[in-house]
Every structure is written in C-alpha cells, then in structure tokens.
Design a protein that fits this description.
The structure holds two protein chains of two kinds. Chain A is an all-alpha fold. Chain A has 15 helices and no strands. Chain A is flat. Chain B is an alpha+beta fold. Chain B has two domains: about 250 residues, MetI-like (MetI-like fold, Orthogonal Bundle), CATH 1.10.3720.10; about 55 residues. Chain B has a four-stranded antiparallel β-sheet. Classes of the chains: A mainly alpha, B alpha+beta.
C-alpha cells in the first residue's frame, strides 16, 4: 500500500431550509413548475377545506342551524347529535356503555398485542377468551346484564366483531386449505384448489347474498340461524380462501431442508406440520396476514347490502332522518375518519413488522 | 402385551400410498354426505315453498325497468335479457375502469418516485387515504357529492357549453354522424394493415442489410395520415350535438348517469391507489445500473425504456396488476349499493321477484368466474411471453 493523502470526500452539501428546498423542490425547471403548481392547488384546496371544515362549520345546535349554513360550512352538529347511534347502532341507549367498554377492551388488547415480546400461545388463547367475553358482554343475559338480541347490535362493535371473528375463525380453515393445496394427494389438492379459486373468483357480495338467501334453504325445516351469524359465516368462508394463499406463501418459503429434517426425525405428517413447519411459516406471514385483516375490516362494511347495521349502515340510517338528510357527506367523513385511523394504524404496523422481520432474518 | 399382527391389514395400512387412498376416500365421503344433506334439505325447503327449480324463469317477463342498457331492453323483455344487460353493464364499467385506473395509477406511481419532495408526498398521501377507507364508503361519498350538485337549471358548465355537470349526471357534446366519419374509419383500418406491412418490411430489410429504418412515426403516419387528410379535405364536418336545457332536464349529446359516473370515478380512484404501488415496486426493482448500461451502449431514451427498463419492470408489474384488474371487476358489484344496475343488482332484483335464489346466485357467480378465469388466462399468456427466458 502506498501512503498518500486521504482522498477528499465530496464537498459537503449545503444545509438549511433554502438549500433543502433547492435540492428537493426546485432542482430542475420542470420540478420548479410542478412545485409551484402543486403549492397553488394545495393553497386553494386548504382554503376551501378550512373554510368548510372549521371556520364556517356548525359545531353544535339543531338541524336548523345546519340548514342555515348549508353550502358554506360543514354540519358537525350531526355528529354531536347522532354519534351514539352511529357508533353503536340500534343497541339500547341505556346499555351502550357495554359496546363502548367492548371497543375499549378491544383497542387495549390490540395495543398489547403489538408488543412483540408478548407473542406467545397464551396471547392467542387470551384473544379467544377476550372475544368470548366481549360477545357475552354484548349479548347479556348473565351477571345481571339485560339480554340484547343480536338484531340490535350495530355500529363499530359490529364491524370489529365481524372482522376479528372472521379472520380468527378463517385461519384454521385457511391452514387446512393451504396444506391441501400443497398435498401430494390429487383429490385433496383438487378440492382445495377448486375452493380457493372459486371463492377468489367471485365478489364478496355474491357470497354474502348466498349467505343471506341460500343458507336458510340449506338447513332442515324449522331450523333458522340469524342474519348476523349468516353474514359471519359468509365472511369466514370468503376470507379463508384469501388467507389460504397467504399461508401457502409461508409454506413455500420454508426451505425444503426443514421438511426433510422433520422426516428424518421420524415425525409423521401432522406432527411435522404442527411442530416444525407451521410455527415457522405462520410467523413468516404475519405481515401479509395483517394486510388480509385490513382487507376484511374494510370488506365488513359490505354487510350493509344485506341489511346489517355496521358503522356504515348506522351512519346511513342516522342520516335517513328527514331533519338531517342533507348532511350525509359529514356522516360519511366521520365514519371514513374512523376507518382511516384503524386501517392506517394497522398498515403502518404491518410495514414495521415487515422491516423488522427483514433485519432479523439471518442472511 | 399387545402384539401387532404380523403382516395383513396393518402393514397395508402403514404404507403411504394406501393411507393416501383412505384419506381421500374419507374426505370425499364426508363432502358427499354434507352435499347430500344440503341438497336434500334444499329440495325439501323448495318443495314446501312451492318454488320450482331450473332455469325456466329466464324466459318469463322481467317487468322491471333498467335505466342504462347497451342492448334493447324494456320491462316487457325476459329475465334472460335482463341478465344480458347486466353482464354488458358490468363489462362496460370494468373495461372503462381498468383503462382509467391504469393511466391514473401509473401517473401516481411515477409521481410517488418523483425527485420532487412535494409531488412524492402528495402521491403517497393519495395512496394512504384511498387505500384505508372501504370502497363502498367511497362510492356512497362520491354518489352523495354528485347528487348534491346543482340541478339541471344551474348546471355547472364548461368548455363553452360542451360539458354540463349537474345532479342528473354528466352531459357532454357529441359530434353528429357524417358519412365522412365512416370513410375515415375505414381508412384508419387500412392504415393499420399498411403499418403492420411496413413493420414486416423493415424487419425483413434489417435482416438482409443490417440497416434499420425508423418504424414508429411512419406507422403513426400510415394509420392516421390518410384519414386525417380526408377529414381535412372534406372540411372537417364536426356537427357538435350540444346538450341543452329543455324544460326541467338537459337533453342532447352524450350523458353519463350520476350512478355510472360515481361508480367509475370511485372504482378508478380506489384501484389506481393500488396500481400506483404496483408500478412503483416494479420500477424500483430495476437496478440503476441497467439504465446506465443501456445509455453506455448508445441506446436513446426511448429505446432504453423499450428494450431494457420496461421488459424488466413489466415482468414484475403484470401479475399484481392483473390481480388489481380482477379486483376492480369484482368490486364493480358494489354498484348495487348506489343503484347502478349491473349484474349483481339485476340478479338481486330477479331473486327477489322470482325466489329463484340458487339459480340467480349461481348465474352471478358463473359470470364472475368466467371473467376472472378469462382475464387470468390472458394475463398468464402475456406473462409467459415476457417472462425471463431461462436457458
């Protein structure tokens, strides 16, 4: 090695907001035009939005105040007046602390579950216990709670219940389907592939219609299952097909050495899967599973089509009131904000998990 | 002491092939039993409700109106005809939505990678907001906004009376038909044939002499040149049929109903957010060295994109983009929520009127499955053509 001068690094980039703007906003002539144009549009949009959402909005009062300000400002008085109905639907008014508590418990449980250190079998069991408890809390009839028929359930708790139970119960079915699709037995494989592709090829609405009009025909005479349960079964059957493909991705990512090692240890098929393959495969697909959950959470709002009052159904019913009919947009924005908060929290979390998983995996 | 019987049935059951047969038989038997139970129950229920099975109802008179139909339809038409209208409406929404979503999605995806910080942030917030709100809520929202527009009397007017936007939908001027248009179309058709011939000739010449003639611009000239000359020579007859307020409504020209407008708008903006992410991932996956190498070889920007960047990016973009196209097609069924009459909406009406739930749902599912399988088959074909050739 020859000794010499240490090579000079590139000259330091100038710092400060002006230099930053020159580099990121005005580095070429067309970027400068784009920036100015975008700034102009943003300013216009913000001015209109702030005027409508904040300055000229009606925050409190009756629908008369809102009608007076129609076209100028938003009518948030709708939310002030109807938020209980939008959030909890037709659930009896005096009993609404129960769905409120259920949602709070759910949010707390989600908060705890994002903590990686707590991931264990106990957590999974905990979730099942929690959901049984939440269903009991909503349903009542024990511990002196007034029974509330499922027909009255609605709003946010219904959205959460349908989507979480939908994903939770579709996972076992999805694992079976994924294993079936990779099975060496031709008939089993054909059945799994057929089911997965059939369900993935049709829209959720058609499955929900099937659940709402065909399930009653499938059951023996005299036996009825309520609408909520039918929708729930439809959602489970639907998301199982999508989740099965996610699980299959995980199964395919496990190196064949793992399968061979398990075989060499003399493990049978089920023990090999349960003890060696699935724990690794499922852990690998947690981020895409969170994405599936987001999709199911959003899709749940389709139950409105078959006449259930989830968050979206509740807001539509609330704005059916002739006094408030002119202000559906405000109601939609409120519900959209709730969905946005839940979904963007989950998608951020899934992205973080994905990056975390990338760092951990040995190269 | 338990002793295993030597040989015989136990050994046979222990072999892998035999176990596979037993498992499969059991699964089939279980599914068969379940199927038999469901079918038997269904037949009982149908019999007790006096509902006839079969597709005979398709010939009966439908009796309900359909606002937008691509083929002739009236309430006196049959249910079968109504289904056909529904299928065509679904396909129409899907085709238009896919085209628009591809354009918008590609633009947003490229904007997301812009070196301009502001543009990139705008694109990523667009994606974040649209993806995290349920599509049906977005459709309700857009539909509500269209209905909240001023009525036909004070419709928003643009391009000097060529375009009107009101709560009755979107009305726009259409050029009136003239025989010159037909001749121009024929010339375009002939021009395309000539352009293809020219392309073959260029390739043949390049194979023989190694010299390459420009292809793209001559092809464009062949395709639209003669038609444009004819059109200009005959005095450009564009007799615009403008929409105009007559009585309480805007008539004349072309028009899109509020339902169609809201549906296509919502589907396009929603799917574009997903396509943008697909496009971004595809472009990011092509290493920078590839474009540098192409430039070093002396390829121009156009040829670099065509021969180096796009083939590699498309390979990654096509499969997930296909998925998004299929999603858009399936999501068009949400139109039932805002009252645009496509397949699911018409199917639902039919089921409610006739009680033929099983046949109705089976037909809906069969159509979607056919569309899904066709699109994926086509895309697989295309994908195989552009896939990496491993030699």
């Amino acid at each position: 090695m020859t000794r010499g001068h240490a090579p000079n690094g590139p000259p330091p980039l100038p710092r400060g907001p002006i230099a930053w703007a020159r580099r990121h906003l005005f580095n070429t002539w067309y970027n400068a035009i784009l920036t100015l144009g975008a700034l102009y549009l943003i300013a216009l949009g913000l001015k209109a939005a702030i005027g409508w959402i904040i300055v000229d909005a009606v925050w409190l009062g009756g629908s008369e105040a809102c009608h007076a300000a129609k076209g100028e400002g938003a009518c948030w008085a709708l939310i002030a007046e109807k938020h209980r109905f939008i959030l909890f639907g037709t659930y009896p008014y005096e009993e609404q602390w129960r769905p409120a508590l259920a949602v709070a418990l759910f949010v707390a449980a989600v908060g705890l579950s994002t903590w990686r250190r707590l991931w264990s079998r106990a957590l999974v069991v905990g979730w099942f216990v929690l959901f049984a408890a939440l269903a009991l809390l909503l349903h009542g009839g024990v511990f002196g709670l007034t029974p509330v028929s499922t027909e009255l359930w609605g709003g946010l708790p219904l959205t959460i219940l349908l989507s979480v139970i939908g994903i939770g119960l579709s996972l076992p079915l999805a694992v079976l389907l994924a294993l079936g699709r990779r099975s060496s037995m031709p008939l089993i494989r054909a059945i799994s592939v057929g089911y997965i592709e059939l369900v993935r090829g049709v829209p959720l609405i058609s499955i929900l219609f099937m659940a709402s009009v065909m399930f009653p025909l499938f059951l023996p005479e005299g036996v009825t299952i309520n609408k909520l349960l039918r929708a729930q079964v439809g959602i489970i059957l639907f998301s199982a097909a999508y989740l099965a493909e996610v699980v299959r991705g995980g199964l395919q990512a496990i190196p064949s050495g793992q399968y061979e090692a398990a075989d060499a240890l003399g493990l049978g098929y089920w023990r090999k899967m349960r003890l060696v393959i699935l724990p690794q495969a499922l852990r690998l697909v947690i981020p895409p599973m969170v994405n599936s959950f987001i999709a199911t959470f959003k899709d749940t709002s389709l139950v409105i089509i078959i006449g259930l009052y989830d968050l979206l159904g509740a807001v539509r019913t609330a704005t059916n009131d002739p006094l408030w009919r002119a202000f559906t947009t405000e109601g939609y924005i409120f519900v959209a904000a709730i969905f946005f908060v839940f979904c963007s929290f989950m998608s951020r979390y899934s992205r973080r998990l994905e990056q975390g998983a990338g760092e951990r995996r040995p190269q | 002491m338990v002793e295993r019987p030597p040989g015989g049935a136990w050994v046979w059951l222990g072999s892998r092939g035999a176990r596979a047969i037993v498992y499969q038989t059991l699964v089939i038997a279980a599914l068969g039993a379940l199927g038999y139970y469901l079918v038997a129950n269904t037949l009982d229920n149908l019999a007790s409700r006096n509902i006839a099975t079969g597709f005979g109802f398709l010939d009966r008179e439908a009796g309900f109106p359909i606002a937008e139909h691509a083929v002739a339809y009236s309430p006196a038409s049959s249910y079968g005809r109504a289904y056909l209208v529904g299928i065509l409406n679904t396909l129409q929404v899907a085709a238009i939505g896919i085209g628009l979503a591809t354009v918008l999605g590609t633009l947003v995806g490229i904007a997301r990678l812009s070196s301009n910080w502001l543009i990139a942030r705008l694109a990523s917030s667009y994606i974040g907001v649209l993806r995290n709100i349920p599509l049906i809520l977005q459709l309700f929202f857009w539909y509500g906004l269209v209905l909240a527009l001023p009525g036909p009397r004070d419709a928003l007017e643009a391009v000097g009376g060529h375009v009107y936007l009101s709560n009755r939908g979107f009305a726009f001027a259409l050029p009136g038909f003239d025989s010159v248009h037909a001749w121009a179309l024929i010339l375009v058709g002939l021009g395309i044939v000539a352009a293809i011939g020219f392309g073959i000739f260029v390739r043949w010449r390049q194979a023989r002499s190694g010299r390459r003639l420009p292809v793209f611009w001559p092809a464009v000239a062949f395709t639209i040149g003669p038609a444009a000359i004819l059109f200009a020579a005959s005095g450009a007859p564009l007799d615009w049929q403008r929409p105009a307020l007559t009585g309480f409504n805007i008539v004349g020209g072309g028009r899109l109903s509020p339902e169609f407008f809201a549906l296509v708008f919502g589907l396009t903006t929603y799917t574009a957010a997903y396509i943008a992410e697909v496009v971004r991932a595809g472009i990011l996956a092509v290493p920078r060295g590839q474009s540098e190498a192409a430039l070093a070889l002396g390829l121009g920007r156009g040829r670099m994109l065509r021969f180096v960047i796009l083939p590699q990016a498309l390979r990654l973009i096509v499969p997930p983009a296909t998925n998004q196209y299929l999603n858009l097609t399936k999501n068009s069924s949400l139109a039932v929520g805002i009252g645009y009459q496509e397949l699911v909406s018409i199917g639902n009406t039919t089921i409610n009127q006739t009680g033929q739930a099983i046949e109705g749902i089976a037909m809906i599912m069969a159509v979607y499955l056919t569309i899904s399988l066709t699109i994926s088959a086509l895309m697989n074909l295309y994908n195989r053509r552009i896939a990496l050739k491993v030699r």
